[in-house]
Design a protein that fits this description.
Tetracycline Repressor, domain 2; about 190 residues; 2 domains; mainly alpha; Arc Repressor Mutant, subunit A; two-stranded antiparallel sheet
Length: about 190
């Protein structure tokens, strides 16, 4: 690992540690740099501000491992991995979601899960046609459900294990997807009529 990457990781680790003790709004750049033994210039070389740092952590810790090589076949395993990451840094994520920037995290989860559910609909529909706007509606419906479930789980103190939350989401999706899609499906031969 090069020195720049090492410094960036040191900054993120210190910031995550500070977030377990202080509210995001109360953490200053000076707090971060003092705890790292760095100067402000070094911080600003890597991040524009603490919002940029928070965004970088959200994306690299939780979202990137979820979206990397994401497929219809592995989405539930990837979801469990993301929830485990959040669970293992529970104080950080609980405090982070309380900030105004928590919406950014929700948006990441929503956008990624909408794509996942669109792929699921594509795979389940088989020989049937579903209008694009119907696919989008169904995918967004399930995505809002998953996003709400994950954020509520965090806000309520993550009392259930990541595996249990994943199981609930996967079971609900599997039970509902065919029913929801069946309402919108037409055999492909009727679609052109």
């Amino acid at each position: 690992m090069n020195e720049s990457a090492f410094t960036k990781i040191a900054i993120t680790n210190v910031f995550k540690e500070l977030m377990t003790k202080k509210a995001f709004e109360k953490i200053t750049i000076s707090d971060i740099t003092s705890a790292c033994g760095l100067n402000r210039q070094t911080f600003y070389y890597h991040f524009r501000d603490k919002y940029d740092l928070l965004n970088w952590i959200f994306y690299n810790d939780a979202i990137m491992p979820f979206v990397e090589k994401l497929s219809f076949d592995n989405w539930s395993d990837k979801l469990c991995t993301m929830l485990t990451t959040i669970y293992n840094s529970s104080r950080f994520y609980t405090n982070a979601l309380k900030t105004s920037y928590g919406e950014e995290f929700r948006a990441y989860i929503h956008n990624v899960s909408t794509k996942v559910f669109t792929d699921i609909i594509e795979n389940v529909s088989g020989n049937y046609f579903i209008a694009d706007e119907d696919k989008q509606f169904i995918a967004e419906f399930f995505s809002y459900g998953m996003t709400g479930t994950v954020t509520t789980w965090v806000q309520k103190g993550m009392r259930d294990t990541p595996e249990k939350v994943t199981s609930h989401i996967v079971n609900l999706v599997n039970d509902c997807q065919r029913l929801a899609i069946a309402r919108y499906m037409l055999p492909k031969k009727q679609q052109s009529s």
